[in-house]
Automatic annotation (TrEMBL):
Name of the gene this protein is made from: kynU
Biological source species: Bradyrhizobium septentrionale
Cofactor(s) it depends on: pyridoxal 5'-phosphate
Domain of life: Bacteria
Protein name (record): Kynureninase
Reactions accelerated catalytically: 3-hydroxy-L-kynurenine + H2O = 3-hydroxyanthranilate + L-alanine + H(+); L-kynurenine + H2O = anthranilate + L-alanine + H(+)
Record-stated family: Belongs to the kynureninase family.
InterPro entries listed in its UniProt record: Kynureninase, PyrdxlP-dep_Trfase, PyrdxlP-dep_Trfase_major, PyrdxlP-dep_Trfase_small
GO cellular component, one term: cytoplasm
PTM annotation (N6-(pyridoxal phosphate)lysine): residues: 210
Amino acid sequence: MTDFKRTQSLFNLPDGVIYLDGNSLGPLPVAVSERVHRMISEEWGKQLIGGWNSAGWMVQPRRIGDRIGRLIGAPGGTVVVGDTLSIKVYQALASALELNPSRRMVLTDNGNFPSDLYIAEGLLRTLDRGYTLRVVAPDDVEAAIDDTIAATMLTEVDYRTGRLHDMAALTQKAHSAGAITIWDLAHSAGAIPVDVLGAKADFAVGCTYKYLNAGPGAPAFIYVAPQHAENARPALSGWMGHQSPFAFDLDYRPGSGIERMRVGTPPVIAMAALDAALDVWDGVSMNDVRQASIALAELFIREVEARCQELKLASPRDGSKRGSQVSFRHDNGYAIMQALIARGVIGDFRAPDAIRFGFTPLYIGETEVRAAVDVIADVIANRRWDTAEYRKRALVT
């Protein structure tokens, strides 16, 4: 049984704040500051370039990848960390298309994170081989899978509403139609139980700055199924993905297995933060996290609907069909969220009208949920959002 009182003590949250935005950026784990300081002062500061060997910087991407793999059901040696999520989406899609060369259709849905669509559009345009990106509604994905599809590219949890795709069922349908599957786990890893191996996913990617709490701009990860490990050609054939980087060959030879999905030099300071953040998960059961998250979200929904009838639920009501976030709609959602943030309840806004709240039992409990609803009810009932200050849009919403 996971001790959530213990995990709450592992985070550094400001006084007077109820943080319901871990689905956008996880809070700071206490151990991260010391670990990063030690990396800078003891490793970089004293070992200098020798740290690549003596401090293990060179093998961080694979070692930390295995730690993330435990949280997503991936066997050892199938996950590597580095670069950004956009790059990992590019890598996965490019490799998937080469594994299915006779087809020209990529299927996605309009609940996918827009950045993934931008990456896909750019790649397909660059390839210039008649590829089409087909975008359907989330509920229409299963019916749209047929023998014209080269690859499905889906985010498991809809960033706007929290709607949850059935990874196993859709992967099975895709495989029966001869398609390759790519799953974006940005809103899944650390939020819900994931089993990429059991679901037979071909590729999976994800970020580490949301539910894995590794900090803004933290490196992303990519998973490649074992059966593709030696066949997936890395479109971005970077130095770190070479079979022998320090042979300095002029010709590229891909590394073995998941190593070939490395691209650039590892961001060692950011990796140190991620490594320390993952310590929080030692002794944590993802099933316990899931059950507690659903309970908190259901409490939140009940209380908000009872007290704030202007807000309309945008997320699935059934917790088993939802990730670890809840969204409500309101025409003045942006101003409402700014008023909440000013009063210490931090969620976020997604255009055109959704206010989002994430429920992470590692550091949020029933007391915080009830206190948050008190603030929301006050803001709505007394129209405390209705000021010019709260309507002014910031760069980040």
